[in-house]
Amino acid sequence: MDVERLRYPIGLFEPVTNPTFAQRGEWIRDIEAIPEQVRLTVQSLTPEQLTTPYRPGGWTVQQVVHHMADNDMNAFIRFKRALTEECPLAGSYREDLWAQLDDYNVPVEISLVLMKAVHDRFAALLRSMRENEFERSFISQTHGSMSLNEAVQRYVWHGRHHLAQLLSLRERMGWNN
Ligand code: NI
């Protein structure tokens, strides 16, 4: 299997331009479900399995889980700033360097709890939003102007994307624990 397929098991992000109420409801349910799915995927892994790269040259399982929590926190802050400020310039973060910092050595359990908490807060916020609020936007330093409609979809894609990397590794390695 080629490396790009291992890296992007669900493909690249492709936003829906004018999502329906039903589509958005599905994304919110995904946001609520993903932390538990990640938990089920990694909670029984051994220390050796947790330090296995999900692809050659890629992050380990443990780094992927900590990265997911870091990304969720950043995304939640960007989102809330756009709801309360006029098109703010969103902060960036060096995910490659964050993954090298020492807090990535704490047990994955800590990020599983963190991820669940951020996702539940995010889902509650999304359920409270009026249609026109999804038109609000922020400036991403990597993607330019981004509406909250798109930001929600990116958030869901990001969770599914990394979950699929972990599931694909489990399957390739034949881990049954
Ligand atoms: Ni990521």
What does this protein structure show overall?
The protein is mainly alpha-helical and 177 residues long. Helix content is 60%, strand content 5%. It has one domain (20-172): dinb family like domain (Four Helix Bundle (Hemerythrin (Met), subunit A), Up-down Bundle), CATH 1.20.120. The chain has 7 helices and 2 strands, in the order H-H-H-H-H-H-E-E-H. It has a two-stranded antiparallel ribbon. The radius of gyration is 16 Å and the shape is globular. The two termini are 24 Å apart. The mean pLDDT is 96.
What is the fold's blueprint, element by element?
Blueprint: H1 3-7, H2 21-42, H3 47-50, H4 61-84, H5 95-98, H6 108-128, E1 137-140, E2 144-147, H7 148-173
Antiparallel strand pairs: 1-2
Residues 67, 71, 158, 162 line the site of nickel (II) ion.
Structure keywords:
177 residues; mainly alpha; Four Helix Bundle (Hemerythrin (Met), subunit A); two-stranded antiparallel ribbon; 7 helices; 2 strands; 60% helix; 5% strand; binds nickel (II) ion
Instruction: Give the names of the bound compounds.
Output: nickel (II) ion
Number of strands: 2
Largest sheet, order of strands side by side? 1-2
**How do the helices and strands follow one another from N- to C-terminus?**
HHHHHHEEH
Return the CATH architecture. Answer: Up-down Bundle
Largest sheet: 2 strands, antiparallel
Q: Please report the distance between the alpha carbons of the first and last residues.
A: 24 Å
Q: In the residues, how many domains can be counted? A: 1
Q: What is the beta-strand fraction? A: under 5%
Tally of alpha and pi helices? 7
CA gyration radius, whole angstroms: 16 Å
CATH class: Mainly Alpha
Mean pLDDT: 96
Helix content: 55-70%
**What is CATH's topology name?**
Four Helix Bundle (Hemerythrin (Met), subunit A)
Uncertain residue segments: none
The CATH superfamily is known as: dinb family like domain
